[in-house]
Amino acid sequence: MKLSRRQLLAASSVAGASLALPGVASAAPNLVRRDRAALPSGVASADVTPNSAVVWARADRPGRLVVQLTSHGRFDRAISLRGPKTDAGDDFTAQLPLRGLRPGQRYDYRLGFEDANGRIGQTVDGSFSTPGRNRPVSFVFTGDTAGQGYGINPELGGMIAYQAMHETRPDFFLHSGDNIYADGPIQAELKVADGTVWKNVVTEEVSKVAETLAEYRGRYKYNLLDDNVRSLYADVPLIAQWDDHETVNNWHPGEILTDDRYTERRVDVLAARARKAFLEYLPMEQAAGRDRIYRKVSHGPLLDVFCLDMRTYRDANPAPSAAGPVAILGEEQAEWLVREVAASRATWKVIASDMPIGLLVPDGALIEGVGNGQPGAPGGREHEIAWVLSQFKKRNVRNAIWLTADVHYCAAHHYDPSRAAFTDFDPFWEIVAGPINAGAFGPNALDSTFGPEVVFSKAADFPNQSPASGNQFFGHTRIDPRTGVFTVSLRNLFGDVLWTKDITPAPR
């Protein structure tokens, strides 16, 4: 290990853990003893930067997370860290930030839980690599998992699009929201419009809409029953953000539901439960100790990722004709985004947006997304995005690219002020991916305010088409360290490349 004991001691102190002696005894990775903690949901790492990472696991009983970390694959020479205790209050989940890591280094980790007598139960291995100079960066991105009643289908091999993403050997996986569909029950069988029958693995928690904390937690546990998901998470670091379906469809703060399926209709109550489950099951680096979902994840000199939260701070969904400002980011987040992107020295600035900005996404007669479908000057939620884009131009931001999901088809949009009603911005790309295991739809209508052009799109053959059709989509990106070229492709369920584009960086 090229980590000093002092570095790791400082890291564990900040994380609230203490450094233990190397060589802590552990059970074999796949050995489960009934009298000791098991890890039924696998392991994961997240928000990996050149010098830090977060590791995560869930036990089946109370215990203390124990982490063995090595940079040479030999666990008999690993450094051991004792992380936080866990109990039913956090559904036996635990995560530990690791700091003082070396850039450009592969790390292997082994996670288990220690009981009150110091006995460690089942352990599971994982790995991640920290970004370094003069090394290419690759990642996959998508959204929308287990939606419209399409869950884990054993006849298909489970959520096999996760396997297709894994096979690209990415440095990390960006999940741009709708990690679960808390408002979509999953039944044993689902009849599809083409006459086929989709079959699901079913658990009690996913058989109805989620209202209780246990039911929200059950949605994440359900996804982690899938071998493809667990395998990817163990081997590929995660960057997670959320959208609406982690709570309920198209929600906004203060909303009162009229859906008869719910006994708890106060969205603020549901969202608090949903947020707790989200933060328990999707590890992330917390900003200054706050449970804030919007954040920056630095991936070395080539890339910074800015994860947005377009759900927590929004106003109620407006009518298309709303002319005045309607929040979707909120003032604090919008100012944070402009400030942090303008300060970034990375070649590329990825804006990870949980909703597209140039498509019409309705909520009945109201507007759920950014675009309002009205020609002319910005209205409603377009005001905040217009301000962000104009500030990017004013502050000479170069090489910002927007990645998003939500609409259940894939597309590449190019935005240019020469085609736009609002012109105070520099041209940019928006790449749309998803779903990854949900019903396929699309395409959506374009909104002309920011001048988008559809360069490519691939949508469902009919609304709510099943994943078995192949119309499941993810994006793949590789950044060349020599030229800085951002090569992005859109791929289907099997990993077939549908469209690709080399984007050359503009000089600073």
UniProtKB/TrEMBL annotation:
* Signal peptide region: 1-27
Q: Which domain of life is it from?
A: Bacteria
| Ranges for domain PhoD-like phosphatase metallophosphatase | 145-489
- CDD domains in alphabetical order: MPP_PhoD (cd07389)
**InterPro entries, A to Z:** Metallo-depent_PP-like, PhoD-like_MPP, PhoD-like_sf, PhoD_N, Phospholipid_Metab_Enz, TAT_signal
> Which Pfam families does UniProt cross-reference here?
PhoD, PhoD_N
Principal EC category: hydrolase
Name the coiled-coil region(s): none
EC number(s) stated in the UniProt entry for this protein: 3.1.3.1
Record key words, sorted: Hydrolase, Signal
Please give one Gene Ontology molecular function term for this protein: alkaline phosphatase activity
Phospholipase D N-terminal domain location = 42-123
Provide the protein name.
Alkaline phosphatase D
Q: Supply the source organism for this entry.
A: Kribbella shirazensis
The lineage is: Bacteria, Bacillati, Actinomycetota, Actinomycetes, Propionibacteriales
